User: What shape does this take?
Amino acid sequence: MTTAFAFDLDGTLTCEELLPVIAEELSLGREMATLTRLTLSGAIEFEESFRLRCAILRAVPISRVRAIVAEVALAPAMEGFIRRRPSECFIVTGNLDVWVRPIIDRLGESLHEACSLGILDGDEIVYLARSASSRIMSPALNVGRRLPAYCTSIGHVMLAHLPPPERTSLP
Assistant: This one.
């Protein structure tokens, strides 16, 4: 059996959570803090809060958000841990793929490894983002590419975390 380490992106790999950093940079910190407080207190359902956050940020160009995220510091101890075990480490996040792309690129460059972002769709992994690799050979896993989950390391982690009934019902 192989060991896998799964880390949360916000506040674990990064030194700060992304949404508050983005909101503060855009002078929207008070609005986001209010939504967070209302959501945590149960006054607003998570899905509604998410929609409101997206509505607030809708007018912000993605390039601006990526520039902000690119400046968020990575936790040195976590980055070092991942550098020592790149094939065993996985980052888990609920953040939007367009937000985490700068972090994927930075990790890939730092580790000299390709880093991927994907989702589980049924029994397949769909790649949402992939950093470039400096290696001579690297598989062509472009955005939108689908592979059977059992054939990929990211798929192994996602399948392992499914509830047993869902895991056994996959083809």
About this structure: The radius of gyration is 17 Å.
